[in-house]
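Attaching the record inline, Q. Sequence:
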Amino acid sequence: MRHKLSITLYLTTVASLLMLGIIIYAIVSKSKFEEEQVFGCGVVYDDYFCGTSALSSNNHHPYGKKLFVLNCKSCHAIHKKLVGPALKGITKIRSKEWLYSFIKNSQLMYDRKDPIILEIHDNRIGFMHSFQALPSADIDSIFTYIDHSYY
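Structure, as predicted:
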């Protein structure tokens, strides 16, 4: 009987410690995941995000950053070329109407023989992913984030 009690106590202790370890791991992993996921470069605070001062007069800036990370960051950076080109100043190089069309369906622009797309596409393999469901207002938010980003 004493032996059974000893084994039961041992197993209960091991199970409790294992559960405690799992809980601690989940908490640490969750906070790390949230920190990494909060728009790719650190924690978003009320006054600052990613090292730049928040523009209180511009409500699109933090939202644009979130949209950029969720939709663009896997292929684009703001100041350096990744899979796609660097995006800083893109709204000064191309019109917003052209950019909306390109973002929503670059393949269609190529098929319609858009001269800019034909020139760009000569140096690339494939096309940018189409974001047909992304509203123009959200694209504007991304542009605002890009235009005001210092990174």
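The helical segments are 2-37, 60-71, 90-93, 96-111, 115-121, 136-147. Residues 2-37 form the longest helix (36 residues).

More tomorrow.
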